[in-house]
Structures are given as structure tokens and as C-alpha cells.
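Per reviewer request, we include the raw input and output of the structure prediction for the construct analysed in the revised manuscript.
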Amino acid sequence: MPTLRRQLPSANALFVFESAARCGNFTKAAAELGVTQPAVSRMLALLEEYLEVKLFLRTPGKTVLTESGEILYQGVIDGFHNIEAAIQEIRARSTGLETVTLSVSTAFTTHWLMPRMHRLQAQLPHIDLRFQLISGAVSGSVEDVDLGIRFVTGEDILHDASLILPEILVPVCSPAYRKQQLESSGIDVSTTLISLSDSRIDWFELLPNFHLQAYGTTHSLVFSDYAVVIQAALLGQGIAIGWLNIASHWLETGSLVPATPTAIATERLCHLVHSRKKPLSAAAKQVREWIIAETRNDVANVSKQYPELKLESFLAKDF
């Protein structure tokens, strides 16, 4: 450590460097740190002078790490993660509570986790949850969290992955909407399809029988947040593609029903993933196993409730 102190203008330089590297912009880093952009520039220039290397390539509106910058950034974030883990362990020992951070969609949190949060707290009373929420399609790094839900093929060199279930899609709507719109024999029937704006799902490619002639005039509602997509379906505004790992609770309670007796499994798999650089704590492992067990129990109940979906055919090979 004495050697490290001699190699840095100040310990604060590491925090400034990490923020600038992560944000890719000195102005954004300054706003995050609560200082001025010139102060960030001066600190980074001083750090480069101490190290006698260039850490950033500066372009209009953006900065890019050099090879030396990438090496330092990796070392800094690894060190910060270790320090953060140590602080969390100290706090856990003093309070008896352990914190687990999840990177999940707002839809998963709103429509799957919240209805059963009381059960999680009863079964795992020593765990506090924090969330990194994603409004659209789930993606992004899990370096700064304990667990993330991602649609990936499985483990890779950087991540461990635990299977939750295959990606299963079911067109869903409220019972009232199905009765009034889909079961009507009237001439002026129209159907509203509710979609996620950044989804890769194409209604008519995925469901070739779901064509215009079947349901008359077709309208669209498109949202950037899947939580709103499901909420709109719950409110009887139309039909949504239901990802089973999110919509299973509402299917089980009957608040949503299959719009057609159709379920489709894609090639993707829904996993709980975490970085190999950050070994899972005992608390994170408990949360992981709880989410997997609850989801699979939900799906089993939905399968019994709606046998016409034939969900067991999608689950047998993976579970």
C-alpha cells in the first residue's frame, strides 16, 4: 500500500478515474461526482502524469480508454468490488441482515416479485433486497450486482448461470376482454395487440394463425416498459405476449387468461446469472434458489390450470 500511495496523486483519483471510464464522458462523471468538469479533467491529467501514460483518448463528446486505461480500469473495479463486499459483510455482521442486489426488469419486480414479497420476507427474513431495474428487454452487465435475470444460452467464461425455465410465450388478456372481444360473434370485432417497443417478438411471425381475419380489425398499443404492457392487459386494453416467467402469477390467479390455447417456446433460456469475479454469498444463493423454486411451482400450477397450453412438453427436457 505505501507503494500504491506513491504512485497516485491521491486516493480520490481512483474514484474519479472509475467514474470517467464507466460514464465515457468527463462531464457526466463530474455530474455524478458532484464536481466541475475541469476538476475531473485536472485530476485525470495529474493521474496520467504520475503514471506517465495516456489513459483516455479524447474525442468530441466522448472519451475512450486506451490499452493502459483498460488495464487500470479492470484493476480498479475488481478492487472496488472487493472493498464493497468487505463493507457489506461488516454491516451484515453488525445488523444481522445481508443485502442481495438484483438486476431484473421492472415487469418482473412489479408483476412477479411484489405479489409474493411477503413470502420471501417470511422465508428469508435475514435478507434485504436492492434492485437495478430495467424497463425494456433485459440486458446489460451484472458486474455491479449479485444476480441478474438474463435470456442466455448458459454459462460462459465470465458468468455462472442457473436455469429458471425456457423462454415460453403465451398470448394473454383479461377474462373480460376475451369474453367481450374474442368470443364475440359480432361483425365489428376489433383486436388490440399490446407490444414492447424493443422486443424481438413479431406477432404474426411467432403466431402465424393469429392473422387479421381471425379477429377483425387490428390496433396496436406499444410501450417501452413491459410492466406497462402487462398492466394494460390486466386492465382489459387488449392482448399481450406474456412471458411466462413474469405473467405466471396473473395466469395462476385468473387475472389474466390465455387469449388462445397457444404456448410457444423459443430457443432462448431464462437464467439467473452472476459474474465469476464476484462469488455468490450464501444469501444470494438462497435468493437464487427461492426464485427458481417459486417460478417452477408457478409454472406447474399454470400447466394444471390450462392443460390446453401443453406446457409440460416444453419443460420436460430442461427441468
